Structure formats: structure tokens, C-alpha cells
Amino acid sequence: MSATTEYGNSRASFGLLIDGEDVHPSNTFPVPDPITQKTVHLAPAGLREDATLAVEAAERAFESWRDSTPLERRTIMLKAAEIMQARREELSGSMMKETGAKASWAAFNIKTAIEMVHEAAGMATQIKGEILQSNGKGTLAMNFKEPCGVVLGIAPWNAPIVSTSPVKM
């Protein structure tokens, strides 16, 4: 990716992914290589409005995710792992440039993230509820698990891929 030396209103090398679209906010910020201090790329600086659009898009996407079958969820996650595997060199290279990570640490993070996605995919068809005793005489309570909604996750700078991989369904 190439970056210019102008910041603020220069176009970012990539956009924000909102509702399946590549959105390019008007403001950017430089992402420096922590070792050389050279700009790796310009990143989009999303505004509150962008965050609101992203949350609204995630809420709409949640409706179909909630209604999907365990097999459909597993298939989606396995496809994500397949894409990560195919792009592991690119992901590792980006992580090294953006965080200053050694190749071995970046490769470990990508490998672990792919393994975690595989594990989450395997759990998608294994989620079970349970029958519990309740406090009412002669009654039972049923406990079942279901997707609960949109959540915010903020990844640390030094392990961005492995820290954002799904670990719970």
C-alpha cells in the first residue's frame, strides 16, 4: 500500500467496512512502522456518524445471524478461516509493519487466530441448553443459549488478529 505525506484530508489506503461497503471517511491518520517510523499507510479516521452507521449495519446483520442454523454459522466461520489461511502471509506482513512484531510472533498470531476460528466453528454445532431445577415446586427451568446481539471489541495493538477471533458463540 502506498501512502502520501499529506495527512488529515488525504484519502486512506483502505476504508472502513460498513454494511459490506468500503467507506472512506474524509479524515485519516498515519500509521507509522514503530521501528523505522516511516508511514506504513494512512488509516481512515472514522467519526461518531461512521460508528453509528456501523452499529446499525451490525444490528441488521445480526437478524440473519440470529436466525441462521448452527450448520450455516459453522460454514461461515470455516470460510473465514479459509480466507485467513489463504492471506496469512499478507496478514503477517501487515502485522509486522504496523506493530513492529517479529516474523515468528506475527506468524504465531495468525496461526493461532485461524485455529481459534476453526474451534469456534466446531462449537457452533455443539451448543446445548440444559434443564434446571427451579425454585417452584414441581417445575423445571429450561436454559438455552442464543446469540445476544451486537458487541464492541477493541483489540490491543500487539496482537490484532488473534485478539479479535471468535472464541465464544
UniProtKB/TrEMBL annotation:
InterPro entries: Ald_DH/histidinol_DH, Ald_DH_N, Aldehyde_DH_dom
Domain of life assignment: Eukaryota
Organism name: Saxophila tyrrhenica
Classification lineage: Eukaryota, Fungi, Dikarya, Ascomycota, Pezizomycotina
Protein name, UniProt field: Aldehyde dehydrogenase domain-containing protein
PANTHER family xrefs: BENZALDEHYDE DEHYDROGENASE YFMT
Domain Aldehyde dehydrogenase as annotated: residue spans: 27-162
UniProt-recorded Gene Ontology molecular function terms: oxidoreductase activity
Keyword list, A-Z: NAD
Family membership noted in the UniProt record: Belongs to the aldehyde dehydrogenase family.
Record keyword NAD present: yes
